[in-house]
Write a structure and sequence with these properties.
This protein is of the alpha/beta class. The chain has 15 helices and 13 strands. The structure holds pyridoxal-5'-phosphate (PLP).
C-alpha cells in the first residue's frame, strides 16, 4: 500500500488541492476493499512467473499459447532490432510505414482469407479507431451489452446512436434493426467474438443472418479468439465457417500472438479508408520493428505448431472440469477464459489475494469491468501449463474456496 512512485509528499505541498477529490475517492476504495495495488512481474510472462518476489502459477495472462517467450519470436525481434533499430520514427502516414509493417498486414490478410488488413498499435486502438472512422452522428450502432470497452469508446467517439441489446440475444438485435428499418443512416451490428470476462462465444451465425437481412454492417472483435478458435487460430469467423460474411474483423496481436497490437481485416476499400481516416493510424506512431517482426514470426508458429492450440484446449477442459467438480460457479464459459463467480467485489479481491498466498495468480475483477453483483476471479489457462501446475492451482482453489465458504 501507499505511494509507489516519486516523492508525493513534496509534490503535494507544491500543488493546490484542486485534485483532492481523487484522494477522497481512493480512500473510499480502500475502505470498500476494492483498492488494488499493481502486481509487479519480475520474470518473463509465462505459465509460472515471479510476481512481487513470489513464484506463482500464472492464471492471469492472455498469453494463451506461450508465444511471449517463443524462441522464434525472440530471435525475430532481436534480428529486426539489429537491422532496423528500435523505433519507426513517425506515424504510418508520414514516414513510419516500414516494409515490415506492410509484410505483416499482407501476412495477416492471407491468414484470415480477406482482401486486406491494417495493423494498429493495439486492439483498443483498432476497435475505437475503426468504429469512430466508419460511422457518424446520423448512424446507428447495435451493440451487445457485454462488448469490450474499446468498442464502447469507439461508439461514443463516432457520435452515432447506440442501441444496446441483452447479451447474446439475437432476437433482440433483430428487433432493434426492424424498428430502425425506415430510420436514416447506416447500421452497424457489433459483437465480441469471445467475451473477455465470461469466456462465452458470440452467436455469430444468427447475428450475421440478422445483419444481412437488414443491410447492416457486421463487425466482430476477435481479440480473445485470435490464436484460440478456428483452424490454426483464425478466429470465430473460421470457427463458424462464415468467411466472406463479416465486413469488419478485428483481432489482437497482444494476447495469443504474444506481442502487441491490433488489426482490422476486410475489403481493400475498408482498409484504404482506414489508412485515410482512422485517427490512431494517422496520429500515433507505428510499431517498432521488433514488434512487427515478432508478430510475423508468430503467424508462422500458428501454422507450424498446431499442437499448441490442441494443448490449450486440453488444459482448458481439464481445468474447467476440476473447478466444476470442486463446486465453483464458472458461469457460461466455453473457452480458456474461466471466471470463478463470487458476486461481491471485496470477496473477489480477497479470493485473489489468498490464492496468491497459496502460489496462484488469478485476478479479482469487479465494477466497472463487470457489473456490480457479478465480481469474479478470472482464470485463463495456457497451452504451456503442465498437468501438475493445473492440479496445484485446483488444490489452491479448493483450499481457499472452502475457507471463504464459496464451496
Ligand atoms: C484485450 C481486448 C482488446 C484490446 O486489445 P489490446 O491489443 O490489448 O489493446 C479489445 N477487445 C477485446 C474483446 C479484448 O479482450
Amino acid at each position: 500500500m501507499g505511494w509507489v512512485q516519486g516523492q508525493p509528499e513534496l509534490d503535494c505541498q507544491l500543488m493546490g488541492n484542486s485534485l483532492f477529490y481523487l484522494h477522497e475517492q481512493i480512500e473510499q476504495w480502500r475502505r470498500e476493499g476494492t483498492y488494488q495495488r499493481l502486481r509487479v512481474l519480475e520474470s518473463e510472462s509465462a505459465a509460472k512467473s515471479r510476481f512481487d518476489g513470489k513464484d506463482v502459477i500464472n492464471l492471469a495472462s492472455n498469453n494463451y499459447l506461450g508465444l511471449t517467450t517463443h524462441p522464434k519470436l525472440r530471435e525475430a525481434a532481436i534480428e529486426a532490432t539489429r537491422k532496423y533499430g528500435v523505433g519507426s520514427g513517425a506515424v504510418r502516414t508520414i514516414s513510419g510505414t516500414m516494409s515490415l509493417h506492410m509484410r505483416l498486414e499482407e501476412r495477416i490478410a492471407a491468414f484470415k482469407r480477406v482482401e486486406a488488413c491494417v495493423v494498429f498499435q493495439s486492439g483498443f486502438a483498432a476497435n475505437a479507431g475503426t468504429v469512430a472512422a466508419i460511422l457518424g452522428p446520423e448512424d446507428h450502432i447495435i451493440s451487445d451489452e457485454l462488448n469490450h470497452a474499446s468498442i464502447i469508446d469507439g461508439c461514443r467517439l463516432s457520435k452515432a446512436k447506440i442501441h444496446v441489446f441483452p447479451h447474446k440475444d439475437v432476437a433482440a438485435a433483430e428487433k432493434i434493426l426492424e424498428e430502425l428499418e425506415s430510420a436514416p443512416g447506416r447500421k452497424l451490428l457489433i459483437t465480441d467474438g469471445v467475451f473477455s470476462m465470461d469466456g462465452d462465444i458470440a452467436p455469430l451465425p444468427g447475428l450475421v443472418e440478422t445483419a444481412a437481412r437488414h443491410g447492416a454492417i457486421m463487425m466482430i472483435d476477435d481479440a480473445h479468439s485470435s490464436g484460440v478458435l478456428g483452424r490454426n487460430g483464425r478466429g470465430t469467423v473460421d470457427h463458424f465457417d462464415l468467411h466472406g460474411r463479416v465486413d469488419v474483423q478485428v483481432g489482437t496481436l497482444s494476447k495469443a500472438i504474444g506481442v502487441l497490437g491490433g488489426y482490422v481485416c476486410g475489403s481493400r476499400d475498408l482498409i484504404d479508408f482506414l489508412y485515410h481516416r482512422a485517427r490512431p493510424f494517422l496520429f500515433s506512431t507505428s510499431h517498432p520493428p521488433a514488434v512487427a517482426a515478432s508478430c510475423l514470426a508468430a503467424f508462422d508458429v500458428l501454422e507450424q505448431e498446431p499442437e499448441r492450440i490442441r494443448n490449450l484446449w486440453e488444459n482448458t477442459k481439464y481445468f474447467k472440469a476440476g473447478l466444476a467438480a470442486a463446486g465453483f460457479d464458472t458461469g457460461a464459459s466455453e473457452t480458456p477464459i474461466t471466471p470463478v463467480l463470487v458476486g461481491d467485489a471485496a470477496l473477489a479481491h480477497r479470493l485473489s489475494r489468498e490464492l496468491f498466498e497459496e502460489g496462484v495468480l488469478a485476478t479479482g475483477i469487479g465494477f466497472p469491468t463487470v457489473p456490480k453483483d457479478r465480481a469474479r476471479v478470472r482464470t485463463i489457462v495456457a497451452a504451456t501449463h503442465t498437468k501438475g501446475e493445473l492440479d496445484r492451482a485446483l488444490e489452491a482453489f479448493r483450499k481457499v474456496g472452502k475457507r471463504l465458504r464459496l464451496i
